[in-house]
């Protein structure tokens, strides 16, 4: 009797087990036809290697899959110079007024699929390029919209109280920076609240250009700012970029004309790594160190800069085609600091 | 009627704490209840296995963090690379994916594969020396089978040849040798636990709880086999077979060693894939010496009887053949978690065998006689020395 009951229980257990397994198999086989319908995509390596997949593609080098490409737009940033709201003072001086709002609560997609708490001037990285002519009066209405204290510290000549170092602007606070634009050259601005490394690395920086009174020769002008993102906070950059997005100018080449003079305002704001550099393919360029002179300092295809250094580069292309430019610290290049010029006839 | 009522009471008294517990969990998880939600759950992704194909590197990854993650990027040696992720870049908790990176890798070089999640955190796994991952084709299957044969079957069979020698020993010397086998197995069990912990520390995520998993599986395997073995001995005693006790012990030793060799084969197959083991003659010789002692362990309990050759060969096969199966699993499919589990099963199995040997020997003499102590010590030292060869 006992044995009969035992074997009945065993049978029941076997039936339950079979039912569970059967259901699992059925569910698994239902799932597979859906997968088979997925389209096949090609992943191209750097040389001959490639792979075809029905899964997802992770390829920031060949495509920009960001959900909102406008929030950091290297194309727009490249040639966007802000001259401010201009007015003429009684003594004939041109005054240029800018409004800059700092924020530290945004999350931006700094590389396709990678979201980072960016600290920004005017909502993007890098901050707006501020441009004035030597002798102008520059007035910056600075508003701190963030949750931490911030400042704007400009490089170039100004009074001590306009240096944006000791007058820390609390969250919700405002400050008006005012100074003469002098001397002419290529400068930058950034937040100077400590820890400075943290405030800069999160994205609080931008370019400040002072043109000489007599101007520079006509050229296709552009800003190239070299930065990085330490997204896992280990004091090493995970991404290196020019103008905000890794590999951006690989899939969006910078279009220039053959034989036309190109002027690059090159700024290095990279944190953590002591040096950065700019190597141009198929050409050499004239270097004006810090842009504070009108005579060429050297002609080269390779300039190395320390943190915060700037140079103006001038060149024109003799032959049409696609030319690469990148950090010759090639580790940076393979983490995003690489792009191309498309030279057109 | 009376009986039904009391059964109902018993069931109710068992369920009431569970219902209250369920209510509390439901309260904590209730949508909008934030009283215990603080801190940011950190993602965790484990690279479980890296394979090398024709101009391809494939990383098998698993989301071992508390929440669903999105994978944003892949890199090789910390350099960002175009990659495919299958089936999807979104991984549920404990979900797995294959990251396939077109890459012209070099034989014998170390590689690190990194995975960056959507919050910019990078997780990496590495191999010491890249080598083409064996595909389960006829050549590789037979190569791994050959490896398993050398490591498992042959040494065990050689060890069995000590039977005539053991037969001629006096009781004291016989106890020494049977204790020697206990020492050998004790060493094997400890070795398996240590190795399982090493694998667990290197490649198994913290959330899996490798060390306690090993302890649990080892105890489970020990108790399960002990239960089976006691029933087996009991049944044989009922049948009044005179040699049954000894041959049951021998069979259980063979099964225990077989389970151990399954784990060992798995580890060898997995290591071959990871490029950590250069398949050298020296290595094979080392394993052969090491495992020959396992044959001695099987044959010792039945040395006083006249076992049939075929029966002995069967025991040798039971003990050795799982190494082949292990090498296949480890070489072609296994995850590090499987390696850890199988090693722990093997450890529990050999501990059970040690227990069985003691019980077998203890029946004839007090437990810790001089020959027994000397045998255990000699066995462990012998294993340590042969392990140095590997």
Give the topology:
The complex is a heterodimer of chains A (345) and B (390).
Chain A lengths: L1 H35 L4 E4 L5 E4 L2 E3 L15 H5 L2 E2 L2 E4 L5 E18 L2 E8 L7 E5 L3 E8 L8 E2 L19 E7 L4 E6 L5 H6 L3 E7 L8 E10 L9 E4 L5 H4 L2 E4 L4 E7 L6 E6 L4 E5 L8 E3 L1 E5 L3 E6 L5 E6 L3 H4 L4 E7 L1
Parallel strand pairs in A: 4-8, 6-9, 8-13, 14-17, 16-24
Antiparallel strand pairs in A: 1-2, 5-6, 6-7, 9-11, 10-12, 12-13, 14-15, 17-22, 18-21, 18-23, 19-20, 19-22, 23-24
Chain B lengths: L1 H28 L15 E9 L2 E8 L5 E8 L2 E3 L1 E4 L3 E2 L4 E7 L8 E7 L4 E6 L10 H23 L2 H5 L3 H33 L6 H29 L5 H30 L7 H19 L9 H12 L1 H11 L3 H27 L7 H19 L2
Antiparallel strand pairs in B: 1-2, 2-7, 3-4, 3-6, 3-8, 5-7, 8-9
Helix pairs in contact in B: 2-7, 2-8, 2-9, 4-5, 4-6, 4-7, 4-10, 4-11, 5-6, 5-10, 6-7, 6-8, 6-9, 6-10, 7-8, 7-11
Could you explain how this protein is built, in words?
The complex is a heterodimer of chains A (345) and B (390). Chain A has helices spanning 2-36, 74-78, 196-201, 248-251, 330-333; strands at 41-44, 50-53, 56-58, 81-82, 85-88, 94-111, 114-121, 129-133, 137-144, 153-154, 174-180, 185-190, 205-211, 220-229, 239-242, 254-257, 262-268, 275-280, 285-289, 298-300, 302-306, 310-315, 321-326, 338-344. Chain A is of the alpha+beta class and 345 residues long. The longest helix of chain A has 35 residues, at 2-36. Residues 1-6 and 25-36 of chain A have low confidence and may be disordered. Chain B folds into two domains: 45-127, Sandwich (Immunoglobulin-like), CATH 2.60.40.10; 138-388. Chain B has helices at 2-29, 138-160, 163-167, 171-203, 210-238, 244-273, 281-299, 309-320, 322-332, 336-362, 370-388, and strands at residues 45-53, 56-63, 69-76, 79-81, 83-86, 90-91, 96-102, 111-117, 122-127. The longest helix of chain B has 33 residues, at 171-203. The mean pLDDT of chain B is 82. The interface between A and B is large, with 38 and 33 residues. Strand 3 (56-58) of chain A pairs antiparallel with strand 5 (83-86) of chain B, so a sheet runs across the interface.
């Amino acid at each position: 009797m006992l044995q009969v009951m035992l074997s009945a229980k065993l049978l029941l257990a076997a039936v339950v087990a079979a039912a569970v397994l059967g259901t699992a198999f059925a569910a698994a086989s239902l799932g597979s036809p859906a997968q088979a319908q997925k389209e096949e995509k090609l992943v191209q390596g750097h040389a001959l290697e490639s792979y075809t997949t029905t899964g997802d593609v992770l390829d920031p080098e060949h495509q920009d899959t960001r959900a909102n490409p406008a929030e950091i737009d290297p194309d727009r940033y490249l040639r966007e110079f802000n001259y401010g709201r201009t007015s003429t003072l009684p003594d004939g001086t041109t005054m240029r007024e800018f409004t800059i709002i700092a924020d530290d609560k945004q999350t931006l997609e700094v590389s396709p699929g990678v979201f980072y708490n960016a600290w920004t001037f005017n909502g993007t990285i890098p901050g707006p390029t501020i441009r004035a002519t030597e002798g102008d009066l520059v007035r910056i209405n600075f508003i701190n919209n963030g949750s931490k204290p911030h400042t704007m510290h400009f490089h170039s000549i100004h009074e001590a109280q306009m240096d944006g170092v000791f007058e820390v602007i609390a969250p919700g606070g405002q400050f008006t920076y005012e100074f003469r634009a002098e001397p002419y050259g290529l400068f930058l601005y950034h937040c100077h609240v400590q820890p400075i490394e943290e405030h800069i690395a999160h994205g609080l920086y931008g370019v400040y250009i002072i043109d000489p009174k007599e101007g520079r020769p006509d050229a296709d002008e552009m800003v190239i700012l070299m930065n990085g993102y330490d997204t896992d906070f280990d004091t090493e950059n995970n991404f290196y970029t020019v103008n905000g997005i890794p590999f951006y100018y690989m899939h969006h080449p910078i279009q220039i004309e053959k034989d036309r003079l190109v002027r690059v305002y090159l700024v290095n704001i990279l944190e953590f790594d002591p040096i950065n550099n700019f190597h141009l393919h198929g050409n050499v360029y004239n270097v004006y160190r810090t842009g504070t002179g009108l005579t060429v300092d050297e002609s080269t295809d390779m300039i190395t800069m320390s943190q915060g250094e700037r140079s103006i580069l001038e060149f024109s292309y003799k032959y049409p085609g696609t030319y690469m430019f990148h950090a010759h610290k090639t580790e940076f290049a393979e983490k995003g600091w690489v792009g191309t010029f498309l030279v057109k006839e | 009627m009376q009986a039904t009522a009391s059964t109902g009471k018993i069931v109710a008294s068992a369920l009431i704490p569970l219902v209250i517990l369920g209510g509390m969990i439901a309260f904590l998880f209730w949508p909008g209840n934030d009283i215990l939600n603080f801190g940011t759950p950190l993602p965790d992704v484990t690279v479980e296995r890296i394979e090398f194909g024709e101009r391809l590197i494939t990383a098998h990854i698993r989301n071992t963090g508390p929440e669903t993650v999105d994978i944003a990027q892949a890199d090789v040696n910390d350099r960002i690379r175009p990659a495919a992720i299958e089936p999807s870049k979104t991984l549920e908790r404990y979900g797995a994916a294959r990251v396939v990176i077109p890459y012209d890798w070099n034989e014998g070089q170390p590689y690190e594969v990194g995975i960056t999640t959507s919050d910019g955190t990078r997780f990496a796994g590495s191999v010491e020396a890249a080598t083409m991952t064996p595909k389960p084709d006829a050549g590789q299957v037979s190569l791994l089978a050959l490896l398993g044969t050398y490591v498992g079957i042959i040494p065990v069979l050689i060890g069995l040849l000590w039977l005539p020698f053991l037969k001629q020993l006096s009781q004291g010397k016989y106890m020494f040798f049977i204790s020697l086998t206990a020492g050998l197995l004790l060493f094997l069990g400890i070795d398996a636990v240590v190795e399982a912990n090493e694998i667990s520390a290197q490649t198994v995520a913290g959330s899996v709880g490798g060390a306690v998993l090993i302890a649990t599986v080892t105890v489970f395997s020990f108790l399960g086999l002990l239960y089976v073995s006691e029933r087996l001995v009991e049944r044989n005693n009922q049948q009044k077979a005179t040699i049954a006790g000894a041959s049951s012990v021998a069979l259980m030793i063979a099964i225990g060693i077989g389970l151990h060799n399954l784990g060992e084969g798995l580890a060898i197959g997995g290591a071959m894939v990871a490029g950590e083991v250069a398949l050298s003659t020296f290595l094979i010789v080392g394993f052969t010496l090491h495992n020959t002692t396992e044959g001695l362990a099987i044959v010792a309990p039945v040395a006083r009887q006249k076992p049939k050759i075929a029966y002995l060969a069967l025991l040798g096969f039971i003990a050795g053949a799982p190494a082949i199966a292990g090498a296949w699993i480890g070489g072609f499919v296994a995850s590090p978690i499987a390696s850890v589990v199988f090693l722990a099963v093997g450890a529990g199995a050999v501990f059970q065998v040690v227990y069985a040997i003691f019980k077998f020997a203890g029946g004839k003499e007090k437990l810790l006689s001089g020959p027994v102590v000397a045998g255990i010590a000699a066995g462990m030292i012998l294993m340590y020395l042969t392990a140095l060869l590997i």
